[in-house]
Amino acid sequence: MPQPDRSPSHRQLIVWQRGIELACACYRVAKALPASERFELGSQIRTAAASVTANIAEGKGRRSTAEYAHFLAIARGSAREIDSHMELAVALGFAGRNEVEEAERLADEVSRMLTAMMRKLAPL
Length: 124
Known about the structure:
Largest sheet: none
Helix content: over 70%
CATH topology: de novo design (two linked rop proteins)
C-alpha cells in the first residue's frame, strides 16, 4: 500500500493553496449577501470553505494512506457543497452569477485536484 505524501507541510500542496484562494472567494461572497442571509447561508458557505483546507491539512498529518484519502474525500465533499451554496445564492437572487464565478471556478479546480490525489493514493 502506498504511503501518504510526507513532504514537510500541507502548506506546500498546490491544492491547499488553491483551497485558501477558494476560502477567500467564499468569504467575499458571504460578506456581500443580504444582511438577512449572512448568518444562515453565509455561515454555511464560510464553514464549508474553511473545511476544505482544514481537512487537507488534517489528512496530511495522518499516519496512513487510508486516513489521508478519507480526509481528502471530506475536503472534496466540502468543495462540492460550496458549489451548491453558490448556485443557491444565485437562484434566490442573493448574489449575481459574476459574484460567485470565482468561487465556483476554484471549487471545481480544487475538487478535481482532490480527486486526482485520491486516485494516486488508492488506484483502482
